[in-house]
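Structure (tokenized):
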């Protein structure tokens, strides 16, 4: 049984097939690639690549440098397009290497001379299953570091198999050095590149079993060393906490592992190779120096501001997010395995949503069929692989284990993540496709050669499955006409007055705005939103909160200085607006950044900004209010003031205190807003006036305040809604959730029009609102009521039919909704349409409490008399 792959006889054919895989994959990626930013991290990465900024920790420096290089050579190609294309290129190369390393795995039992066609087909199946799997495709069509991670890992896997093929007693150490360099260079793309390093090491030493030591001895030593390293980790975990070096156990674990390697491999590897290994590790990690140097120049995006050793260390070690240990579980391992890893696994192949639409079958049924098929092919591949060559199986299994079970353990996700984290496990799904490909051919081989027709049919079906998978995934991955994220950011910016401060909540209302401000995007300007006349109308609208903006000379100076800074770094729109992200306001460096480079007054001394429990009362640290507090917010004009209150026992975090301080120091000098996506306004809830996608801080107190003129001008004339109503553009759950914010704005306009009995306007805005909202059926009854009221008050009966049509729709969606019984009765009261009402009530009688429905039927009959 072979310990290493056989060389491919026809290298030229193999290379051509690999290039075909790359070309086909890249073409599909290009056709479906986003032409602007997408939600989540893509907007941040494009912006940082465009301006050479510093993204969220740990910075992904090599990826940002690659993105910046693409931006420099882009000529007239928009930066968003060229940086998204970088992901497509890296992913397509990674798919090509999936083909190449799959070929290496299977040549450990298949003969390249006799079975070349079979080898090539297995490689093609694995490559195309990988290329068009759900998460892999997602990463390939937007600016995302996981495309670079896939390229790094797949290249290393291929090189590892090349080394296994060529090595004799640890010869060809130059290949090992190249692997080490690529792994640590990949660390600058994403730190999980090192996750497969133990598998590479295992494959390197595995052949020694047959020559030098017994296999049982090898495993005994390995288990003993692992237990010892875990003990070292746990000992230094407590020591690290004591001396305030949380990462100390990781360093000691790595040191112990290195000592073990040197002890066992010292006579196998030249001394100069150890030296060069260390040298290449340092060269690979050196991309991180970029973060240290660039942050000193204060780019527009400068997260963490890692310009000194302390901040740089905190940044690289991700201390902003808190220090975690894989031995302190953030959720049960079973939950992490079942509700995260396996759940995400079920999304990867044969999209159930698309298949259910094609076949007019319940989605849950198609999901079960899809999962069974993927599991069956993969398990068949595992069995066939193990049977044919246990050594080849051990190599692939080691990679899969480190990317799956071990990854679940190390990543240690919580049970309350803010978004789905399927991208962490995409490498495991990539390796699974190899077993799916092996299983596909193995199943065909099980059919007797005598049954040629059956064998041909099976081959056609099994080989067509990757094409079916591609087709089922195409629509949901086609972002070529999707500009929802771009417009979302622009719409927030265009909602506000000049020199405004806007508090945002998370990635999806911050990154699109940063992008819109920093990056020149032809996709934004060619559509020309907002229209000039709309902007002029906004300026002419008389609003009492507008009239109270009276900046001091100090404010004018610092805003001017901020504008000069931002105009030097940014090529987008509305650079006059300051974005203050609530999550980042928990960090001292960000508060200083807003103060020093965004023109935000923040009248707390530097030493009090640091998070320090021993600091004075004015310092920023989490606290519980000891007694009821009434805080005065005062503008620059006499009488422009209001109070906010906090009850005893209220807990205020750093971000809460920072928001209060910013509003206190800037109210009346600059317009201040909260994006509607912010979950809490930190004491200012009753002093917010909605104007569309933003709520303005005002002195008046009340529930659900809004400026109707600004609100309707924004939603009718200023905002851009591209792709929202285009059914050819797929909207995922996140998009649908965010689009509800547009619907809420239209609903506010409808509610106001209803309150002043302008029914035609109220109906218009509510119907428009429903087009943005995912759960449209929830509002059909309300729309029906508006039509009925319009008929009743204006003695016009033409709206009755529309009213009952909407009631029928509401009932068809949810016959068991008890509120609809009374809604039907009130509809009859308004319209006198007794027969229609009775018909509707009888249609839901079996789905409701029959006695209640019968009672309302009797009431309608009484009305008729």
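Design, position by position:
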């Amino acid at each position: 049984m072979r310990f290493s792959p056989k060389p491919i006889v026809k290298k030229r054919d193999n290379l051509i097939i690999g290039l075909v895989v790359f070309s086909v994959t890249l073409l599909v990626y290009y056709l479906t690639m986003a032409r602007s930013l997408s939600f989540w991290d893509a907007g941040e990465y494009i912006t940082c690549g465009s301006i050479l900024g510093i993204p969220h920790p740990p910075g992904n420096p090599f990826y940002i440098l690659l993105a910046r290089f693409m931006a420099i050579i882009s000529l007239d190609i928009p930066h968003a397009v060229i940086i998204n294309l970088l992901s497509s290129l890296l992913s397509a190369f990674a798919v090509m290497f999936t083909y190449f390393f799959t070929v290496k795995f299977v040549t450990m039992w298949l003969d390249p001379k006799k079975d070349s066609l079979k080898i090539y087909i297995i490689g093609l199946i694995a490559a195309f299953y990988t290329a068009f799997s759900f998460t892999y495709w997602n990463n390939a069509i937007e600016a995302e570091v996981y495309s670079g991670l896939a390229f790094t890992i797949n290249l290393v896997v291929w090189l590892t198999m090349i080394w296994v093929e060529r090595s004799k007693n640890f010869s060809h150490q130059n290949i090992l050095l190249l692997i080490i360099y690529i792994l640590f260079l990949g660390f600058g793309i994403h730190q999980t590149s090192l996750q497969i390093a133990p598998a590479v090491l295992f494959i390197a030493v595995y052949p020694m079993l047959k020559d030098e030591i017994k296999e049982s001895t090898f495993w005994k030593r390995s288990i003993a060393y692992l237990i010892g390293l875990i003990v070292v980790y746990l000992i230094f975990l407590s020591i690290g906490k004591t001396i305030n070096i949380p990462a100390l156990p990781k360093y000691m674990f790595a040191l112990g592992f290195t000592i073990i390697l040197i002890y066992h491999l010292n006579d196998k590897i030249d001394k100069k190779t150890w030296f060069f290994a260390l040298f290449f590790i340092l060269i690979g990690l050196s991309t991180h120096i970029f973060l240290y140097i660039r942050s000193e120049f204060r780019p527009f995006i400068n997260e963490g501001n890692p310009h000194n050793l302390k901040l740089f260390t905190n940044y690289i070690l991700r201390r902003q997010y808190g220090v975690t240990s894989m031995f302190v579980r953030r959720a049960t391992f079973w939950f992490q395995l079942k509700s995260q890893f396996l759940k995400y696994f079920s999304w990867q192949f044969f999209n159930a949503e698309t298949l259910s639409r094609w076949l007019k079958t319940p989605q849950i049924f198609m999901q079960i069929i899809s999962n069974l098929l993927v599991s069956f092919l993969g398990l068949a591949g595992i069995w066939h692989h193990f049977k044919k060559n246990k050594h080849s199986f051990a190599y692939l299994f080691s990679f899969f284990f480190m990317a799956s079970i071990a990854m679940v353990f190390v990543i240690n996700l919580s049970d309350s993540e803010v978004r789905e984290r399927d991208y962490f496990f995409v490498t495991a799904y990539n390796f699974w496709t190899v077993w799916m490909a092996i299983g596909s051919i193995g199943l065909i081989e099980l059919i007797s050669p005598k049954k040629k027709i059956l064998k041909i049919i099976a081959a056609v079906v099994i080989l067509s499955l990757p094409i079916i998978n591609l087709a089922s995934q195409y629509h949901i991955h086609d972002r070529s006409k999707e500009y929802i994220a771009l417009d979302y950011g622009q719409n927030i910016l265009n909602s506000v007055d000049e020199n405004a401060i806007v508090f945002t909540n998370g990635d999806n209302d911050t990154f699109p705005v940063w992008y819109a401000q920093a990056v020149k995007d032809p996709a934004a300007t060619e559509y020309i939103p907002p229209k000039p006349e709309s902007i002029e109308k906004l300026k002419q609208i008389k609003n009492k909160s507008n009239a109270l903006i009276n900046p001091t000379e100090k404010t004018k100076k610092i805003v001017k200085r901020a504008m000069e800074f931002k105009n030097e770094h940014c090529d987008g729109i509305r650079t006059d607006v300051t974005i203050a992200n609530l999550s980042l306001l928990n960090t001292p460096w960000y508060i200083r950044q807003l103060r020093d480079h965004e023109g935000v007054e923040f009248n707390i001394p530097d030493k009090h900004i640091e998070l320090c429990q021993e600091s004075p009362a004015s310092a920023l640290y989490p606290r519980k209010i000891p007694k009821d507090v009434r805080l005065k917010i005062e503008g620059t004009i006499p009488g422009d003031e209001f109070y906010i209150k906090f009850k005893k026992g209220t807990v205020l975090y750093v971000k809460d205190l920072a928001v209060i301080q910013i509003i206190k120091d800037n109210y009346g000098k600059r317009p201040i807003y909260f994006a509607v996506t912010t979950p809490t306004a930190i004491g200012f809830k009753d002093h917010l006036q909605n104007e569309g996608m933003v709520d303005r801080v005002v002195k008046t107190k009340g529930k659900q305040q809004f400026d109707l003129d600004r609100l309707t001008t924004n939603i009718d004339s200023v905002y851009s809604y591209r792709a929202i109503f285009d059914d050819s553009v797929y909207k995922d759950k996140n998009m649908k959730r965010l689009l509800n914010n547009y619907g809420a704005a239209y609903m506010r306009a409808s509610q106001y029009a209803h309150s002043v009995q302008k029914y035609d306007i109220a109906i218009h805005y509510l119907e428009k609102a429903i087009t943005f909202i995912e759960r449209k059926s929830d509002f059909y009854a309300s729309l029906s009521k508006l039509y009925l009221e319009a008929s009743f008050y204006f003695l016009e009966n033409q709206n009755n039919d529309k009213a009952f049509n909407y009631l029928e729709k509401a009932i068809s969606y949810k016959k068991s909704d008890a509120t609809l019984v009374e809604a039907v009765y009130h509809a009859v009261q308004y319209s006198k349409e007794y027969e229609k009402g009775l018909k509707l009530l009888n249609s839901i009688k079996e789905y409701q409490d029959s006695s209640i429905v019968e009672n309302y039927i009797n009431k309608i009959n009484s009305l008729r008399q």
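Reviewer-requested clarification: The chain has a mean pLDDT of 88. The chain has 39 helices and ten strands.
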